[in-house]
Batch of 2 targets.
Target 1
Amino acid sequence: MTVPSIGSLILLLLICAPGCKRSRQDRSGPGARTERDLARKNTVIFDIDGGRVMNPDVWNPFVPGSRSDHGFHQAIIEPLFLLNYESGEILPWLGESFLHDDSLTTWTLRLRPGIEWSDGEPFDADDVIFTANMLLEHSPHLLYSASLATWIDHVEKVDDLNVRFHLKRPNPRFQLDYWSVKIWGGANIVPQHIWEGKDPITFKNYDPALGWPIFTGPYTLERVSPTEFVYVRNRDWWGAKSGWKPLPRPERLVWTWYGPEETRAASMANGQLDSLMDISYGAFQALQMRNKNIIAWSKEPPYAWLDPCPRTLELNHTVEPWNDPEMRWALNYALNRDEIVRIAYENTTLPNHHFFPAYPPLKRLVHLVEEKGLYERFPVMEHNPEKAKRIIESKGYQRNNAGYYAKDGKELVLLITTHEAFIEKQRIAQVLVEQFQHLGINATTRNEAGATWQDNYQFGRFEARMGWQATGSINEPWNSMDSMNRRWIVPVGERAQFNGWRWDHQAYSDLVDQIGVLPLGDPRIDELFLRAMEIWLRDLPVIPITQAKKLIPFDTTHWEGWPSKENNYIHSPTWWQSTHLILHNLEPTGR
Amino acid sequence: MDRLRSLLENHWKLGLGLAIVLTVAGTGLMGHLVWDVTRARVGSTELNLPPIWVRNPGPMFPKPDPTSPLGSDSSGRDMLALLIAATPNSLRVGVVAAGVGMAAGIFLGFTAGFLGGWVDNTIRVVADAVITVPALAVLIVISSYVRQIDLNNMAILLACFAWPAPTRTIRAQVLSMRHRPFVQMARLSGASSFEIMFLEILPNLLPYLAASFTGTVSASILAATGLEALGLGPTRIPTLGMTIFYAIKASAILRGMWWWWGFPIFMLVLIFSGLFLVTIGLDEIANPRLRGAPRR
Amino acid sequence: MKVYLLQRVGMFFLTVWLGMTLIFIIPRLAPGDPVAAMVSRMTAQAGQVENSAEIIEAWRARFGLDDPLPIQYLRYMKNVFSFRLGYSLAYFPTTVEEMVRDTLPWTVGLLALATVLSFLLGNTVGALLAWRGTPGLARALLPISLTFTSIPPFMLGILLIYVFSFGLEWFPAAGNVARGIHPGISFSFLVSVLHHGILPATAIIITTMGFWALGMRGMMITTDGEDYMILAEAKGLRPRRIFFHYGVRNAILPQVTALALSFGGIAGGAVIIEYIFTYPGMGYLLYQGIVNNDFVLIQGIVTIMIVGVSLAVLIVDLLYPLIDPRITYRKGSYG
């Protein structure tokens, strides 16, 4: 290649550049198809929360590496039931009711009549039984299979619309935990006529020629690419046919992923996204300045919707001196939650003195704790470095030359590990490190790759971690409380399902076990709960820091009807299966 | 005077490069005497301050504060303190990594070039294998495993990937020198291999080695910054790469907080430019003809 | 010559084998595996995963991750020799071949193209810098283009995004093709790909150009002093012809070896460029594999890279004697 030809190449590129400048409205690139099917005003564009989908041809919701948050369970797979965080009710969807007997071991599921798969086959009890048995057979490889195998003894068909589940032990939360989109999603029913005879562990469930994946939702899959997924409305959707709900207004749905937070935010500013996943406050401000139609959950601080996984500073109870409750309380007095909210979150969340998320049914229980005066005896929210120093010094620690506390020649150190993909917890950890350093503890923080972080937690190989592993409860207390039950404890070096912190308290665990067999909403739960909380507060096995925030912006330029604090018909995360209700509520603005 | 002038004329690249690098290093090392470096920590200043010369920061930012002349980031770290603290750290990683890598490279390159035979073949195969394995990939894996990431660990890690290139090129140089008359003379007068290697050949290679060293420092700083920009560097020890990482994660570009990522990039550009010039300058000393074709 | 050929090919296999072994061992040193990575991701989305320990243990057994290392190693070797790269652990049941097939064209297309362009541009600049016949103006301007070498590629990427995407809005900041366009041989598709590829390619070209320029300049100066150059001038050949046929042609040879070797560096540089520009290439795939501790994916991609680079170097090495008759490979000479 000679110099002149190189020169002309450069010239060509430079000429192209200004010609490629797009106007603000149409940013789909030069020569984009602008046929009616991609008309902006009929399409809703969502952001994919979990990052790029590396295997876009896998549409089997049960294999571990599969993804459901790219429109799969928001538009195609419908749930049996849907828990509404705002009202606290479990809404019937594909299922009409799920009733249990007094022993809590027999649950009867009644399906809504008239449901069809998107290829016209009827959805009935056979599909439910097939799915349940398939999961039981392939436990524990498939997701949810091990959980169901723990509880289900066998499944019985009553008639085409009724299925009876016989459980091995009483479980008051059987419907809530697995079939109601309690957090993010749940176990889904697959069509027997397609899955029969396939190996569910290697079955990809993808064949455009046959229309696979086939589920019951109001949308079907139109097109797949590594960066975007397009769904088109199904005119024959059973819900509209049977008169249950009208067809949702959007004709097309697109799920796409633009990369780092600011590229995604910039795309929304340019009108290329209607719904964006969690962003930081500063990015939200910048977004609102560029596009006035952008809203979040609430108009005032903290703007964000509160997510079910409160952030907790978790300590390893097999590591000295953090197995001493008083030392944990010292840490609690040393840290300053308000400063964390201000710096790490830029004021988009609330400080937390409990491991529950702040939803009304759980807030009621926390209120009971306050009324009983437990927070006066155990002031978790108190920031008091002097008290912290007194406790530490009473244990025999003295300042060494470097200014840190030390005993018997060993410095008081604390290593807080964080998951490398989640900047929110890293920011909290950084503020904590400064606060502890200020006190005289040689604290440091470190990122670990997700797999390493998970393994270290389960094997008990950590000192402290900034995590959210006390999650579980949404509208009843047992789930989160059970994550700290001593029944999960295994020796360090073996894999623990829960309680990787190895907090061992017999009395607390007994109370939790008693709560576990009482039906939801039983009045006896409150008393047991308060007794357990007294123990928990004295020991403070994990230190609650903040509520989790999800700042989810919506663009009202093309579509209205998004959930918000004023219009809280459902909670707002659009990567959850609860998005189905949002889809039915969207109205085009006509712009 | 004339000698000084001709010295400057002939070696202006080296001079300029050294001046830049020393200034940058000096700011870092001396800076803590004039500025409180502890303000590079989280929470030491108000959040999101723009630099002091910004007249109208707009509604999203507070007014500039004279105690933070270069502004601050969204966690309250003062940018000036950050630069002063981070620059020597970034330089140090590069120098240590290059030092260890070069030392290994010199030893292995000499051995391979001089001894030849199967020793030579083994070293060549290992060096080639390490070159073809993507270094960044391995570094990412290892850094997620090492318990404590501090600057020295990072430097050693990087050195593991810095040695093959010097080894190859030193080996080539040694091979070409082996047959030069002065080496033959030394051999005839009974010098041992060791003496020939380190007393005859090495001094002749010095400028070349120096150029190779600064080039390796540059590459090591680049690799370290690359790792940090992916989030795998030390967290409480300020480094330029981690600052860029935090800036990207906090959407600093979108927010218009150019000072957050702009100043670290500027420092890095200075460092790399300086090292680049030094490398070329040393190259020219090693091979005087590189100074330019003689005018006709 | 035959001895040399055998030796060289033997070393090729040895290098490849060593590289493959390294990339087998090193990821397994880190605790955690892709199923654990998946579980930790799911806990971030779904709050908690019940029976996570059972799931992880079951899949580890299925993937053979608990087998003793030598057995896993033999399995890996056997797969490679039967040209299979295996099931990705993190994205099961997708195979590594499928994922590579989707991403390789983009990486090759973008990065190889950018590298080759950088090579051509850089060498041209370097040759012009060394040539006496270059007009003074160009001689003064050219070094400026080399100052950009001091900026690491990913930083230039950030700057380019800032100026050209968020600022001027000429180019998109992410992706390889615009939303809504079908992949396929169509004008709109090709234009969109070009449109999305310009910024990342520019970042690579500008920052790597200087390296080639310097090397070429050095080689040209060395060549300039050779006897045959003086003879060519004495013969009265046109300066242009001397420049290209005698100067550049001889100086370019070592550069070509360096080019072959630099393709190995592509993958490393690609990771960060593809991360910044969200370009769906193999570098980003490798990064995802690493982050998930997906041994099989990492091994598969790196094996492809190692084989590719070593093959390129081998071919160049073998072609050398054909191109430059002065080089011989008999024992005792410099080779």
Target 2
Amino acid sequence: MPEPNDQRLAKDPRAGCAEACAELVRGHYEKVYRFLLHLTRDVHAAEDLTQETFAAAWAKLATFQGRAALGTWLHRIAYTKFIDARRAEGRAAIVRESLLETPVSPADPIETMMADEEAQRLYQLLYSLDVSERTVLVLHYLQGLSYREMASVLEESSGTLKWRTSEAIHRLRVLLNDEVPDHAT
Amino acid sequence: MPPERSEKPGPESLEARLRRLPPPPVPADLEARLLAAIPTLVPFPVEKFRASASGGALAPRVLPALTQPGSPGRWVRWIGGVSALAAACLLIVLAWPKSDGQKSKPDPQKNHLAAAGSTDPVSPQSPQDTPWLQARRAPDDLKLAPFTWPIEETRPMTVASSIPGDLLD
């Protein structure tokens, strides 16, 4: 359900209120950026797509119906931007899906900023998943979206997304067990 | 042995660990860049557009704002547009030419003029009309010259007469 604050923010920018737009940016840009960072695994691409997401949001704000929360709507735009960029990048980029095969760049925030070794390892395993598996896990567990909100973002049914999330968790658990030989039975 | 390796990674623990993951840092200047992009990207204010006499070039950007759900004159414009469309459809239906059922009873005087080569502009003849089409349009009650078959018919063709007898052997 959209929050009343979202409704106000959605109406004010349509009237040209720059302050409401600024409030909208401040309230949502971090989540949008992190979502795109988890999807792209690239800081610069995530920054660019975040800016494109908000640019598209300003253009589409008049069509925002208020059926979903503004944050969910922004996630939907961000996901669409990611899909568009991925298609534009072509097949060569899709091959570079596995983080284990891709050398970690110095600007990688996971590598440079995560002091927690376990978190870093879990991020690496998460990033080694297929993008569709990673997307549902990121949306549900890292972004905190419900299955209903995920259905709005990914345009799939809640039941399908529950199943996909369960499958992705199972896949992540297998990777985790494979990496820890003590638990391999 | 590290503590995370001694822990059995059950379903709950893995989900909890995912939820507990520290969020990656956000670039410090990203917010400033997004905020700086607002003035050039925000849709043009409707009030300014209405007051502006030369707002035609901005219409594509403003159109969504004018059709927003909260716009006061939105329903009035919708009803007006639908009414105009319905009236146009009604006029088209009423002005449509009559069907073939009424073509069988044309005005004899008009047909007489058409047969006489009249250049009446009201006549439905067009340059693409062939003589066959014109003849087809001729009414039943119009006096035409009696039709004569161009080839003289000798006798009815039968199987016995068309197939020679020796071929049957």
